[in-house]
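Memo to structure team: turn this sequence into structure tokens by end of day. - J.P.
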Amino acid sequence: MNLTSKRIEVERKQRNNLFQSRDRLWALAQRGYAVTGRGLIVADGKGTGPHVSVSWRSGHTLLSGSADAVDWIRRSADMVRRYDPAREFVLQYLSPNHRVHIYRVAVRPDGALEE
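Reply from structure team:
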């Protein structure tokens, strides 16, 4: 297995672990919103293991250096501005392949996470 294949496999495992812990992410999002207002959860998966560190960031995060950063900042800011904190949270995943994925994750009206 080459390095790229290994990173892709690590990314798959990290994303699976993230979405399996959505209840923990929802609790973090609710606490973060209560304290600082709108924001997003940042999941840093740049390591080599199957787990990622997560943290709440108020507002939206910034990237620097790339031409794609401006478009990404605009899209993430729009997503943070538009999500419904009573039903949704925004998750930014920094992959070990140096890619940034952003998700708007919804919960059902009864508080259970949607599949």
